[in-house]
Amino acid sequence: MASWNSNDLEILEKAIATGAKKVKYSNDKEIEYRDLTEMLKLRDYMIASLDSSGTNTRVIETGYSR
Question: Quick check: helix, strand or coil at residue 29?
Fold first, then answer.
């Protein structure tokens, strides 16, 4: 996959959270990963890639309120 988008990152993160090793991305490409380590490395790469391109607009909810 040459370029990533935030939707692809979300798809990978959901797969990681559920323990799935086979992931179908937004371009309909399906990849089966060997293990969690491989998936986590790719997730980190995707985050860095999206951050450097300015297309990663992730929102983190902390549960904090005033």
Answer: coil
49 Cβ neighbours under 8 A, 6+ residues apart: 3, 4
Question: Phi-psi category of 31—alpha, beta or left, where left has phi over 0 and alpha has psi -120 to 50?
Answer: beta
In a domain, 25, yes or no: yes
Start-to-end C-alpha separation, the chain? 43
Lowest mean pLDDT among 16-20, 33-37, 53-57: 53-57
How many distinct structural domains can be found in the chain? 1
Give pTM, 2 decimals. 0.74
Boundaries of domain holding 25:
6-53
Determine, yes or no, domain membership for 1: no
